[in-house]
Amino acid sequence: MTKLECSVWNNGGTGWGLKVLGGLEVRRTHFDRAQSPIVVELDGTPASFNIDKKSFWTQGCGEIISAPLRAWIMKHGLTSGDPVLLEVLKPYQTFKAMPHKVRPMKEN
After folding, report:
1. Residue 86 and residue 70: Cα distance in Å, rounded?
2. Is the peptide bond between 99 and the residue preceding it cis, with omega within 30 degrees of 0?
3. Please, which residues have CB within 8 angstroms of residue 7's CB and are 6 or more apart in sequence?
4. Where are the domains of the chain?
5. At 75, phi and psi to the nearest 5?
6. Which 3 state secondary structure label does DSSP give 10?
7. DSSP string of 80-92, one letter each residue
8. Rounded CA separation 4/74 (Å)
9. How large is the greatest C-alpha to C-alpha distance in the chain, in angstroms?
10. 94 neighbors 47 (Cβ within 8 angstroms)
11. Cβ-Cβ contacts under 8 Å for 2 (sequence gap 6 or more)
């Protein structure tokens, strides 16, 4: 299964989401504006996200944002910049979000 690298995004206030990393090339390869909204599974619960918006397709943006995603981020104790993987379940349509926190190495 393909996994897309993302990071937790915050607008400096109450807006939380996931920034799809890799720029426009990754978004053009794995998302189709005509198939908006996409579905992202958050701990087994599907949530819809609009990707048919200018900001998702501009070079510097690429965030998916919603209240259910904010709750998921908080539930997992994630903060801005933390890594998250989006597993492609059904190309262009269905994804699964997975926290990808780097665990500290144990000292010997």
Report:
1. 15
2. no
3. 18, 19, 21, 80, 81, 82, 83, 84
4. 3-99
5. -60, -35
6. strand
7. TT-EEEEEEEETB
8. 21
9. 53
10. no
11. 30, 87, 88
Instruction: List pLDDT tens digits, range 36-90.
Output: 999 999 999 999 999 999 999 998 899 999 999 999 999 999 999 999 999 999 9
Name residue 34's amino acid: A
The tokens of 97 are what?
A: 């979000």
Q: Minimal CA–CA distance to 17: which of 90, 74, 101, 57?
A: 74
From the list 82, 68, 102, the residue with the least C-alpha distance to 10 is 82
- Whether the pTM exceeds 0.90: the reply is no
Alpha-carbon distance of 94 to 65, in angstroms, equals 15
